[in-house]
Amino acid sequence: MSDVNYTQPDGEESFAKAAGKQLLGFGLATVVFFGLLMWGLQTLASMVGSSTVSAKAVDAENQSITIAIATEPPQMDSTLATDASSGMILGHVMEGLLRNSMDDKIEAAIAERWEINATQATFWLRDDARWSDGEPITAHDFVFAWRSALKPENASEYAFLLYPIKNGRAVNEGDLPYTELGVRAVDDQTLVVDLERPIAFFDKLVAFPTYLPIREDFYNATNGRFGADAWEMLYSGPFMITSWVHGSSLLLERNPYYWDQDSISLQQINIGYITSDGTAKLNFFKDNKIAFTTLLAENLTNAMAQRWHIERTQDGTVFFLDFNHRPDHVTSNRNLRKALQLVLDMEELVYKVTKLPGYIPGESLFPTWLQGVEDKFRKEYPAPELILDRDEALRHLELAKQELGIDEIPELILLSGDNPLSSLQSEWVQEVLRTKLGISVKIDKQIFKQRLAKMTAGEFDMVLAGWGPDYDDPLTFGDLYASWNKNNRGLYNNPEMDRLIEQAQNSVVPRERMETFAAIQQLLFDDVAQLPMYERGVTFVIHPHLKNVKQRVIGASTDFTRAYIDTTAY
Predict the structure, then answer these.
(1) What is the DSSP secondary-structure string of 204-255?
(2) Same domain membership, residue 405 and residue 518
(3) 372-428, pLDDT tens digit by residue?
């Protein structure tokens, strides 16, 4: 990916915005014309430079910051987005009925008030909620978005998050028309949702991107390209994308129609670099080109030598070695998976290979920060104990060969990201399995978007995968291996797992739910559905003049929406 910063000629910005606002007044041919015209303007902008976009890390005069992101968002359609990169951008440019506050509580957003009982949820939208073209955001926009996410032909991998809505699953599986979904706009400001069952955390769910609004007339005018480019989106959040040079940069600018203007200080968030190269980002920070960067093991020492103030936190994400459970892959054999479980030492991975502060060796799909009944879930229900044993691993390996009817395990394909940390970890897995089990592993390194595509297509035996929380409840991890969950890309299928997940979904009794999650935790271990590798810590440096940047477990991992520049330092 290119490390070239994006700059923009004077005058293009206002023309692009004006053109985007007028798209709905013309036919499809005009939509295409404006799209091509703005693509040309952006390409020209990337070559000739500008005084509009600041190249500084922090620009107090223009209230602008410049940052880097590791990967380009694959696309920005909130009904289809599944990845952290898209989620981070959506967290800055879109807002739903409710949102996560700066102190990690659910608070009012487009809905100014709400009521939820066992059978129904009602949301009353604020009168001053506006799209980025100035048009009102209405209850109808939520009805359209949720129906779209559930249409089978859209193949949304997060459609299951809408199953708590009455008939949600039946609509998604094609058994009922989308018009039968239990959501309706009583009027422009009142949204009523009929629930399939009592649910303990529906208010937390509606803060997730799949529940974001989409305006039907604009969506239809993009002719299937909604979210593919800056001008093919409407924005409900504090910022809007005014430029997107694919593979290079994005420019987020303050949305003048956002209802909560008093909470926003920045005028621009310039994503001037898209690179997963940690050393490059460290150099950008050192040269005052970006205001924030995370640190990897190879550049932590360098950062300490600069005497920067280094901060750390947990980002809530669990990483694991996922298996392909399709019958035509040898990893569908439990004894083979068990052999791998007994030789892969995750403490060695974290403390001797990864070597980054804040990382915790993996023991469970359920991370340590999740709340149980009265204490953390993992304190109340500890992860099953794993005792590494090579001899026992070799015994399981022989059983696997007998069951598979083969003399040797064929070369396993390990799908991995193309960034330095993924390379380090995948090479460790490769070496451990070669030396301890005599299994050959071929590493398939792919850019982020292609890795997701190969995971979905099942083109792997093993994959280095991760899962971050979508909402603040153990079910956000606990239902990942349901047979019907489209994020279960290895197609693990166990009726007992499905039964336990449905039990957790249908219960509102805290102790009963947590005991069910403990049973899910045990089954994942016993069946070796996956191998927990580590819980990710984040070590980072931030410009001393940039304040109120929020590190989140739920939502955009790094949130700049309420950040401000400390002008007293100038």
Answers:
(1) HHTTSGGG----HHHHHHTTT-TTSSGGG----SSEEEEEEETTTEEEEEE-
(2) yes
(3) 999 999 999 999 999 999 999 999 999 999 999 999 999 999 999 988 889 999 999
